[in-house]
Amino acid sequence: MMMVEFPPGATIGESHSHEGEECHVILEGKILAEQDEVSVIVEAGDSFSWNASVLHYVKNVGDEKAVVLISIYSDTELIDVL
Questions:
Q1: What angle do CA 61, 80, 20 make, to 5 degrees?
Q2: Mean pLDDT of all residues in the chain?
């Protein structure tokens, strides 16, 4: 489990995929979460999960930092996912 801070406008970079399942809890701010062709904006108090082997992308679309608690589950060790 990790807590990630995204300054305004920050992204995870290009859309990417990796083995595992991800669960996200938005603690502060507002982010755009995209997976495949599904796009949602989530805010503090919201949560979502997805199959990480499908291309995904996250961007802070708010005016303040976004703080996201992320838990990644995989049967294999994941190195440098974020």
A1: 80
A2: 92
Which of the four pLDDT bands, split at 50, 70 and 90, describes residue 1? confident
> What is the tally of structural domains in the chain?
1
pTM above 0.90, yes or no: no
> Which pLDDT does position 74 carry in this prediction?
81
DSSP character for 16?
Answer: B
Local structure of residue 11 (DSSP, 8 states): B
CA distances from 50 to 5, 7, 9, 16 (A): 20, 23, 22, 13
CATH of the domain at 28: 2.60.120.10
Q: One-letter amino acid identity for 9? A: G
Does residue 26 lie in a domain region? Answer: yes
**CB 40 within 8 Å of CB 48:** yes
